[in-house]
Amino acid sequence: MKMGIRKPSVKKSLKARTTGKAKRAVKKAVVPGYGKKGTGWVKDPKKAAYNKLYSKTTVGVNPLPGSSKSNSFSNSSASYSDSAIATHYVPILVNKFVFAFLAIFLGVFGAQWVYAKQYRRALLYFLFCWTIIPIFMSIYQGFRALIARTDNSYKIYV
């Protein structure tokens, strides 16, 4: 059994990336068990055990950058778990003078983030208030808020 780093094959990697969706769809329709997980254990258990052990004991080096994953999922549970993990940042409008005042004078404790309703950041600032890091970050955020361009309502996105 091989252990260590796998030797990458550019030729095989390119062939695997250029196999079309139509060809896979035809094979899936014609060959029973094509594209299904776990069919290797039924057809050839010795080879499946070898491949499982080989993939666990060796490290792969991808010769081609990028990923060839398709955007569509075959089952709904996989798409649900991906959507549950992904987070989307929504900027919040706040008054620039209030945010800057809180950031400069009480920013060590994360007061500006409580005002902006970003409680995770506020908690991080509060937990690390004994270090010097939140001091510099809050002063920077306060002055950045003061010099940010706004309209007549003096609101900025944070």
UniProtKB/TrEMBL annotation:
* Keywords of the record: Membrane, Transmembrane, Transmembrane helix
Its domain of life reads Bacteria
Q: Where is this region: Disordered?
A: 1-22
Looking at the record, the residues that make up the TM2 domain are 95-143
Has the keyword Transmembrane been applied to this entry?
Answer: yes
Question: Where does the record place a coiled coil?
Answer: none
Pfam families per UniProt: TM2
Q: Which residues cross the membrane?
A: 97-116, 122-140
Q: How does it sit in the membrane?
A: Multi-pass membrane protein
Q: Where in the cell is it found?
A: Membrane
Cellular component (GO) terms are: membrane
- Name this protein carries in UniProt: TM2 domain-containing protein
Tell me what organism the protein belongs to.
Enterococcus dispar ATCC 51266
